[in-house]
Amino acid sequence: MSLKNQLNTARDGDTVISRDGTPISYLKTGNGPGLILVHGVLSVAANYSQLATSLGQRFTVYSIERRGRGLSGPQGEDYSIAKECEDLDVLQKHTGAVYLFGHSYGGLIALEAARNNKAFNKIAVYEPGVSVDNSINVSWIPDYEKYMAARQYLDAFAIFSIKAGPENAQKTPLWLMKLMLPLFVKQPKRQQMYDLLPSNLLEHQQVALKNNTYPDYDEITAEILLMYGGKSKLKWVGQALLALKEVLPLAGVKEFPKLNHFGPDETGPAEIAQALITYFTETKSLSM
Q1: Would 88 disulfide with which of 31, 113, 189, 228, CB 3.0-4.6 Å?
Q2: Mean pLDDT, to the nearest integer, of 110-134?
Q3: CA-CA distances (angstroms) from residue 40 to 82, 184, 218, 286?
């Protein structure tokens, strides 16, 4: 199923127009105070349907379809994380949402957006893609670009999975990763990821450009909850959380011992949703 068809068969939604004229679509579900959900790389809003449905018991959830996907406009030649922040800003103004949740690259966008948009009262991020001392590996980009130019999409996906993945994946030969990926990533999810490989490249280039800019987050005035999975084997996650705690000493931190990096969309959406409901509705934030 194509990305457009996934959205067309999803729940109610609408479109807003970003500052540069790009249409940005979103999915809407639930009732209650507004909460915007920002997805990560190689993902679309519909991948977080279980999380959004669970959160919809207490909130009106607006799952933004980031540019370059589905019914939203293209990323554009001048793509930047600043454009993503503009998209999020126009959706926030349109919906009046005061709560924000972002996962991985979506968490980085949430933190960036919150620097200037003070309308958010509380923000939660799950393993935000914050690079500290080049902790998020982008050494795969030259080979990735070569494979993409040759339309060798499995090779591009495999080299990314090896070099940007956990330490055990980084030891995997390319030929073996190419055999393993189709076994672990089934259709139609694999085709979705292939469709998003160009977006993945641009987004990781933005991660690299934002390396060591985390001190800027001291401009955030909203209450923050930093979330992570106890089974996440990505080395950069711990470095990001430590750096963010230095800049945001009052931020709460919550671990999910049984979850990995894909807790919000795959391995634990119900558990994540319950924690978010508690955080967003309680006077005091969760902390551990």
Answers
A1: 113
A2: 97
A3: 16, 19, 23, 23
Give the separation between CA 112 and CA 244, rounded to whole angstroms: 13
Strands 122-126 and 252-256: unpaired
Query: In order of start, what are the domains of the chain with their CATH numbers?
Result: 3-134+212-281 (3.40.50.1820), 141-205 (no CATH)
Structural element, H or E, at residue 103: strand 99-103
Q: Is 167 helix (H, G, I), strand (E, B) or coil?
A: coil
What mean pLDDT, rounded, does the chain reach?
A: 94
pLDDT in tens, 36-95: 999 999 999 999 999 999 999 999 999 999 999 999 999 999 999 999 999 999 999 999
Q: For residue 11, is pLDDT > 70?
A: no
> Cis peptide before 188, with omega less than 30 degrees from 0?
yes
One-letter amino acid of 278: T
Q: What is the pTM of this model?
A: 0.93
